Amino acid sequence: MRILTAAAAAALLAMPFVPLAGAADAAAGPPMGWSSRSLGCSVSESSVRKAADALVPLVPLGYRYVIIDDCWLATHRAGGALAPDATRFPGGVAALADYVHGKGMKLGLSLSAGTKACSGGGPGSYRSEAADAEQLKGWGVDYVKYDWCNIPAADFPGQNVQQIAQVLYPRMRQALGAGVVFAMNNEDGSTVPWLWGKGAGATTWRTNVYNRPIPDTYASMVDVWETNQLRAEYAGPGSWADPDLIQAGRGGMTEAEYRTQFTLWAVGAAPLILQADPAAAPPSVVANPKVVAVNQDSLGVHGTFVKTDGWYHVLSKPLANGDRAVALFNESDRAATIATRLGGSRYRVEELWSGAVASSTGALSAQVPAHGALLYRVSESREQAPPLVTFEADPPAFLGDDRPSVLEPGKAGEIVTRVTNTGATARLRDVEVAARVPDGWQVAARTTTRASRLDGGQTLTVKWAVTPPAGATPGNYELTFTQGARSAVAVVTVATAPGRGRTFLSDVAWTSAKNYFGPVEKDTSNGDKAAGDGKPITIEGVTYAKGLGAHAPAEIEYYLAGRCSTVEFQAGIDDEVGAAGSADFEVWADGGRVAHSGVLTGSMPARKVTASVEGARYVRLVATNGGDNATSDHADFAEATVTCN
């Protein structure tokens, strides 16, 4: 094994960096595979072999990198050389690489550019880059994730973080050579790698500066994606923007949301590295060959916005054969129709998740589910495919309306469907729409459900009377409408508005409640974390029989149906936390704040809050944490009432 001498190390420190022309040759497309990150320091030789076995069915699609993310190193070098942890990896790295290679895959390891690894206590590669690179190549390692931890900034007087990174990262890239994938992993973005990573020969460079690492939630995933899109201009073939790992199979999102992440990563030419156990990653999300082909397209272009308004996005990615991939992404909480123009020719349009093929004279339009994304492959073609149809169920009443329509138990509400011949390449004949509702519900068409024909641009609109049963449980329900082989789903909310007169809100079912600590309590204080453990609501010695006990930050929402006028309550910090705690009590009617208390502390008496909610569909009672922290912020909405007409 070759050990770097002191003289060689000094020479390397002084060596100017020369970019490697073929630095990305090891990865023909964005890397695909699996990372051990979820295992943390429980990672072991056996768990990596197990993951490799589970990844085998995905190898034909391009999943070939098995990456050990930290905690593989022994705490100290052995004779100056890196050594694997003998307990976790008793067989050694070379044997593990042979095992992975034997299954048609490649092995990746993490190292740190600093003096220590990020996790596990192992050594970093600072001043040992050449020797460490030769050692990993000798073991048969094909991929290096190079972290940015424990950097000795004092060794670089007068240089900022970016300047230091532009010394340390290229050292390892140069030492590894073009045959090893080099993933620059500066999670907090302090080194701004998108500005210089491509020139430094990085195969990938991290863009996720919002959360590190990426959490398994929809909101966080979208934040990470939006940050990644800001770096699109710097990405290109052989050097790709890396917004972090694919979350499908971890359980924090719905399958539709995982499909959205996969779509956005595919259009963004991002690495497709699974974080979940490969056996748990749903094939319906991670194993669609046509979607993977968009990601792996040899042109290597990062998709960019055609248009966006903050919630509804259209992205386009040119492909090597002259086609383009077009994604329609609905970031909002309600299904919405997203439309764009393809140009002035005739097009073959294939939606890659469903496999549906249609034709269009230039319009592309579809109703996209909440948090959903559709991905199309578009090509100029005279193919005689059916015209593109836009099928909408319960479209929003106005742009930006992100709440489901509300139906009240025992009362008929109106739901609209629309079928439009968007493609305009042929006439649609004998168009008929049918409805399917949950058991016990009633549905009847108020207008005709049939059209003998629809020419290009024409629409069949059907109005439906939909009635939930009188005893329907509050919550969300799906209504399915069909037109031939097509279907459209409307998600509606069943909720009951308060009756006439003055009603205590603790006697009304809320539509949603969020609370920092434990559940919101009715007619008691917040208490501890368990449900039902509160005490009588008491503020500065005054006890209230009715009200809501929360812990700020908290948010409690009610459906008012536009029939109510006033919300009132006594705001204060409950005596169960003594003089501690602080909160600001707010009332929001639909999208605007209509009243607030100002910051109240545990040593202050209750303050009455009166808010006009005239015409509002929803009202939210909000308790913020008073601008400090959430400690002891037991926020009481005492005697909270709503007055309705």
TrEMBL record:
Signal peptide range in chain numbering: 1-23
Lineage, uppermost ranks: Bacteria, Bacillati, Actinomycetota, Actinomycetes, Streptosporangiales
Organism of derivation: Nonomuraea jabiensis
Record-annotated Glycosyl hydrolase family 98 putative carbohydrate-binding module domain positions: 499-644
Keywords: Disulfide bond, Glycosidase, Hydrolase, Signal
Domain of life where this protein originates: Bacteria
Protein name: Alpha-galactosidase
Gene Ontology molecular-function annotations: alpha-galactosidase activity
Class of the enzyme per the UniProt entry, highest EC level: hydrolase
Biological process terms in GO annotation: carbohydrate metabolic process
